[in-house]
Each structure stands twice: as C-alpha cells, then as structure tokens.
Specification:
The protein is an alpha/beta fold. The protein has a single domain, classed as 3-Layer(aba) Sandwich (Rossmann fold). 28% of the residues lie in helices and 34% in strands. It has two helices and six strands; from the N terminus they run E-E-E-E-E-H-E-H. Strands 1, 2, 3, 4, 5 and 6 form a six-stranded mixed β-sheet that branches. Strand 1 and strand 2 form a beta hairpin. It starts with a strand and ends with a helix.
Length: 103
Amino acid sequence: MTLEIKDIKDKSYERVILARNEITKFDCIKAIYNNKFGPGLGAVRPCKYSSFENQKIDVHKLSDAMTLINSIYGINFGISKASLNLANINIFSLLIKDFKFIF
C-alpha cells in the first residue's frame, strides 16, 4: 500500500492534511495555517498520541503558537506544522517517501 493523503475540513486553517501508510504505520497530520507571507515554515513533532483527536489538537496548538511568534518577530513565512504519531510506528520500516510528505 502506498502513502494515502486526504484533506481534513477545518475552517480555521488554509489546509489540514492527513497522511497514512498502513504498511509502515506512518501517521502524520500537517496543518497549514496560511501561506500569505510565503511558503510554510514549520517543523515536526514526533510524539506518541493516544488518539487522532489528541494528535490533531496538538498540531493545531503548534501552528497557532508559530503564527503568533512569526507575527511578533515579523518573520515573512507562512505557517506549517506537522505531528507524527509514534504510537504504532516501527521507525525502521518507514519509507523515504513517507518522510517527504512532512517536508
């Protein structure tokens, strides 16, 4: 099975994307707050989340915090944050193409 990518509807964000690979157990949410000031600048938080909702809440908090930081310091980049769920993942079985989604 390949990497499955789908959009999650969220009115507060420009785009929220879920990426999953059933074979490697790759499970990542990427929240793009906005790209008005340029390409999305962000990072990845690898963490063991107990549920999809907890993972989604965390990635939203991350992008909200970066939006505030960028606006305070006048950093001209959009906001993009990702959360990688390590709960069921075998890090050694991940495929390179799974990681390309994050960046």
